[in-house]
Amino acid sequence: MDKDKNTFIVRCGEVALKGMNKPYFERVLLERIRKSLKKYDDVEAQRREGLIFVKTPAVYEKETVARDISRVFGVASVSHAVETESDLEAIYETAAEYMNGLIGERGIQTFKVEAKRADKTFPVESPDIARRVGGEVLKRCKVLHVDVHHPDCVLYVNVRHGRTYIYADKLKGFGGLPLGTNGKGLILLSGGIDSPVAAWMMAKRGMMIEAVHFHSYPYTSERAQEKVYDLARILASYCGRIRVHAVNLLDIQQAIGENCPEDEMTILSRRFMMMIAERIAEANGCDMLITGENIGQVASQTAQGLVVTDNAVSMPVMRPLIALDKVDIMDIARNIGTYETSIQPFEDCCTVFLPKHPVTKPKLSRILESESVLDKEALIRKALETQETVTVVPEM
Amino acid sequence: MPAYLDNSATTQERPEVTEAVMDAVKNAWGNPSSLHRMGMETEKKMKAWRRTAASVTGAAEEEIYFTSGGTESDNTAIFGACGALKRAGRHIITTSIEHHAVLECCRRLEEEGFEVTRIDPGSDGVVSADAVKAALREDTILVSVMHVNNETGAIQPVKEIGEALRHRDHILFHCDAVQSYGKIPLPVKEYGIDALSASGHKIHGPKGVGLLYVSREKRIVPLLCGGGQERGMRSGTENVPGIAGFVRAAQLAQEEMQENLQHVSALRTRLKEGILQEIPDVRINGPEDDLCLPYILNVSFMGTRAEVLLHMLEQDGIYVSTGSACSSRSNKKGSYVLRAMGLSPEETEGAVRFSFSCLNTEAEIDETLARLKDAVTKNRKMLSLTGKSGRKR
Description:
heterodimer; A: alpha/beta; VC0802-like; Rossmann fold; 14 helices; 41% helix; 21% strand; B: alpha/beta; Aspartate Aminotransferase, domain 1; Aspartate Aminotransferase, domain 2; seven-stranded mixed sheet; three-stranded antiparallel sheet; 13 helices; globular
């Protein structure tokens, strides 16, 4: 066994279920894993028999490497493993040594063994391997007892062609599909709790992400914009660098305020956001728009509100949060690490000009009529002139 | 033309100060506590700086303790006094317009069983000395009243309060003078102030350094335990370059006090008159000019949101403050100081603080006025569109 290296077994969730395309997905996943480990030197990553094996120099903390791997979309789970020849004597010895290590590190007292024989030519069958390894470990690690119901630790023995892998932990990944296998989407990133979660969910399905943010500077502060970049930076730790386009919506809001009914301010603004986003998406090769909209959450996200907003563009709009409850969205936000940033109290451009009583059941025909007094094209073009693009890179 | 009008938040370090700091960094890096010559040389310099600081403060050398700034000085004075005097009683008097460094200490003490009386100011932002006197009790051990309020510039009657407390040995009178130190005279002995907090970076000195004066007649217990520096009051190796810079800044402020006062008074008047003449529907917050520190001007622009004005002005390089840092909808109550003065929500929401320094110029004021006029007009127009200022469509 190579003592200078740590070995990791990576299981590929849904990728494994693919048929003809499986090699393609595996190849992309392998590439993504390599990319996510770029900060380490001398990383080896290979796919073999439906699994991905990663080796990193032992100087890098194995917990950190495992965590990095687990954050790659498409990874079902990852285990740090010790490796030996597929030979019973070698397996006993390695297993005992490994368990002694765990006794020292974690003070475990009880265990059980689960064995799997991927190499069907191996002369001993799985239950038998488990029994024998268990017996040998008991002999060699005096403090341990077997407990098949509530063991402190499950020792997995995975016998493969030529090599056997022994491990005790499985770190769950996010699942999903490797990034880059599903086109590119443009997220309308507001700075709230929902939109980062929506972007993350689409990215988890393999979609590359680009972002647009609408602000009303000086009615919103530069700090609010910094917060959006902070959120993008967190997203970037999952999906690589993200380009964020910031657009000032103030002139449009002013035009709406001057020419349209007050209670339609929000819904009309949202239509303009969608239209501008569509232009930016087209200019940057995005296939679709993504929003954090969630039915019924606020006045502009009622069924009627969504109909009116959706009508503004012809590009498909993905709304991955549409039927989730707020608490579930918050849970995901906490889990992916965007929540704490999202709840910082800065006003975004939707709340600055919030009407006292916004329309909750807008009628498309009426909204279109209100909108028709505005020179849409000129307003959109002027707003696009304010566009600033920043590329946000993940923190290492 | 840019204009920095947020000098009550912090000031730009003067070149003379930077020079003093650099000199100490290069030539006085020995530890004053070391027994060898290098340590002794730094110690000698510290002694000279302390002498200067004492003279600026109007106190004796042994009454000066260097700290990390206003907050630490306030904390040391308040907790230190309560620690020393708690056997004499558990009642504290302060005002509702103190800086958070004082208010939060009092809140903590309240949790620990002390009783706190907070005196509200009048509508001009000045606390009445009589109200403070009336609140005195047998078990009062600490009175903490700021010299000048940081949002309105209102000068508090610390002289009268000091006189009333002069012969009450079991009461410590603390004065947070962070906004006034080096700007207007504050003779601690004459006023009967027992403890005073000052900060370096409000007077063109470095950040992270300040001082605490404690009268030799009074005893307080230290907050920090350790090597016993600052005669046991403030353990921790001295911030030698910071102290060098602070003392230089204090010295300059003292020397140029009258000159600077005249300069900023003229600027303040110019801006105030300009606003009153050219911008309708405004309210000057704070007392009449003779009771107001001329370094601060607080104005409410009705029908605007101060934070938006701030961002509009920053686009032209003009920096002001809203006095309240809350921008969230959930915490839209605005400044606690202005609310304590009885201002309406509209008045607090549109309140901007301009604060001056000797480095500002007339031309900057004129530019500010022009930009401000424009910003207020735009802001009022925009807010009226959404019906936020009451206009119905």
